[in-house]
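Z., the sequence and structure:
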Amino acid sequence: MVNFRRIMMTTVVTGLGIIGPGFNNVNQLSTILKNVTVVLKLEKLKRLEIYTGRVKDEEISMNLFPSMFKKLPKAARLLLHACHEAVNMAGFDVEDGRTAVIIGTSGGAIDETIQLARNQEQETSVFHIGNMNSYSLASAVSAAFKANGPSYCLTNSCPSGLQSIELGKMMIESGQADRVIAGATDSTLESLILESFSKLNVLHNDSAIQPGPFKGTGFSMSEGAGVLILENEDLALKRKASIYGKIGACISNQDAKSPYKSDKNGNQLLYAVDRCLAEGYPNYINSQALGITQNDSIEKSIYQQRFAERDIPITSIKGMVGHSMGASGMFQAVSTLISINEQFIPPAVNCDEQVIESLNIVTDRIDQPINHVLITSQGYGGTNSSMVIKRE
């Protein structure tokens, strides 16, 4: 008889990969964070002059995949690039039936849909239907790496990347998978999308001022993909894999107020943070710090309530790499793992001066031991996530 007694497991990270504006691997992102390099560029559109973070097509390595993968939408190609780095770093056999694929996104393959709608005279292709299907992001990874375990695509707004890690941890610690390719990707820098966000007054559109966290002037949209290889710690140790970090508490919830806005009081994000604090206080907080007034107010209030007295450092990478939508949480996770392994806290560049006065905002790189980091994220429609990543 099968023994279904629950065995406590730990989820570790054995590989990571990333691509974004100005960087196409983990080492390049590390250099950007250490040198405090802003990769956002001022871009003029029809009715907008905004900062964006675009990835050049030539930066996406597709020569390692069969030719059919080159027909995929940009979001999928970004994802495969990051996956290749992460899988190579982890060094394991994907074709074991026990490796799951979980991909988070906000826009899915919407860029493909917009381009097709714009070019209605273009001859249709047998690839168009598949490319417009958001699940093609996950199925592309499964096919490219022969991962024949469970495969999912989450479209849960900006925290989708963190939630792909959370679901991966659940699957590993419930015994449904031994390893998970947890990723997130978005490529939504289409003029229609940018103009629509501009009408919501959430895009930073002051070309004279550099965008930054907690400013309340809006965010600067970027694109990219990040991937973590999650693994059962016992199996990772058994095969003598390098371990880059451990996934601690992962808490997600819903404001349940409206599909168009969040709860201005931030009660559910506070609840998620409190659940994570059951594992202790962090060395620092990797904050979403989106730049939208309401979101920033919620995070500032939580940080003042829970962390101000302890003078815990707070940072955000938004001012350097922008907001990559559904991939943003994964950008936070990868940057956190870089800081844990290289022992430094990256600064929050171009942060609002009043916030710096009221909270311990990191304004210059800090070199110090890092063992425990808290990540926070909020998303359109009221979704919230908070996560702990540890060194050991």
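Residues 43 and 133 are 29 Å apart (CA to CA). The chain has a mean pLDDT of 91.

Let me know what you think.
H.
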